[in-house]
Design goal:
single chain, 5 helices, 0% strand
């Protein structure tokens, strides 16, 4: 944990001594916010760096002669964004978890749906 964050955490626990010092909910929320902030920082740097790469590809060869759009059709302009984007996707999945796709009660809902479907099929022939 960085010095600033540790100091912020210690100040908070001093202000709320006895109220939140051993509170696992606060600690879990703090870790979650820390992960979320790291992900948003990652997205911000990803966008800034890739904008710089794309703009530099426009003026790569002819800086004094104006903008040359031929750099936009080359692979190396977008390769960094592609591979870094895969890493960013993995980071997002680690922050938001697999519940992002399926939801926390997805399995229960699917089981209920199949049970209702089976019941309807059995009643159809009776």
């Amino acid at each position: 944990m960085g010095r600033f964050r540790r100091h912020m955490y210690e100040d908070y626990t001093k202000q709320h001594f006895g109220e939140y010092t051993d509170d696992e909910n606060y600690n879990a929320a703090y870790r979650r916010v820390k992960k979320l902030k790291g992900f948003y920082s990652h997205v911000k740097v990803y966008i800034i760096v890739n904008i710089i790469i794309i703009v530099s590809s426009l003026t790569r060869d002819n800086f004094n002669e104006g903008i040359d759009f031929s750099g936009l059709t080359q692979w190396h302009t977008y390769s960094t964004a592609l591979f870094w984007g895969i890493g960013l996707l993995a980071h997002g999945l680690s922050v938001f978890g697999t519940d992002w796709f399926f939801g926390s009660d997805w399995e229960k809902r699917k089981i209920q749906k199949y049970m209702e479907k089976d019941t309807a099929n059995k009643n159809k022939w009776e």
